[in-house]
Design brief:
Beta Polymerase, domain 2
Length: 164
């Protein structure tokens, strides 16, 4: 029994305590989800850049590594339709955090995080290319996986199986 408690403590210690973020960004953070020792912040697009800059610069958090950005199409009948999830890691504290933003199909726009993490450059381009999510202020928003003249976004759920 002590082995499982020890294992749980070790696993959950890899994830950040989000209470500081909850109080400082009460208008931006919509929900904090803790499941299986993982923490996910569900946030509004408004205030996203400020929140991410804080997560990177705050000494007690120090999320200095953006490991991935992923896009999800929840389906053409879902509202909001899209989700963009940022996977953050603190090299100094060995903490992980997921930040998720939901977007409607009519307004699938996010501010770029290129000025916060340069690693977001190609990751944002991939989400733009595959899902059609626009990253406002991106320095080089063009297709990265599909040909420049390709029409459509292949990872959208309403994309035809054989293309257009």
């Amino acid at each position: 029994m002590s082995e499982s408690i020890e294992q749980t403590q070790t696993q959950s210690s890899r994830y950040v305590d989000a209470s500081l973020v909850r109080t400082k960004f009460a208008d931006t953070v919509e929900e904090i989800i803790e499941a299986i020792g993982e923490i996910t912040l569900v946030v509004k697009r408004e205030g996203l850049v400020e929140l991410m800059t804080f997560l990177r610069d705050e000494p007690s958090l120090k999320f200095n590594y953006l490991s991935d950005i992923g896009g999800v199409d929840l389906g053409e009948f879902a509202d909001p339709r899209f989700a963009v999830a940022y996977q953050l890691y603190s090299l100094e504290h060995n903490h992980r955090l997921r930040v998720k933003v939901f977007l409607s199909e009519d307004d699938a726009n996010l501010p770029t995080l290129w000025n916060v993490w340069k690693a977001s450059n190609w990751l944002e381009r991939e989400i733009y290319d595959m899902f059609g999510v626009n990253f406002e202020g991106h320095p080089d928003q063009r297709r990265i996986l599909m040909p420049a003249d390709y029409e459509g976004h292949p990872l959208r759920k309403d994309f035809p199986m054989k293309g257009y």
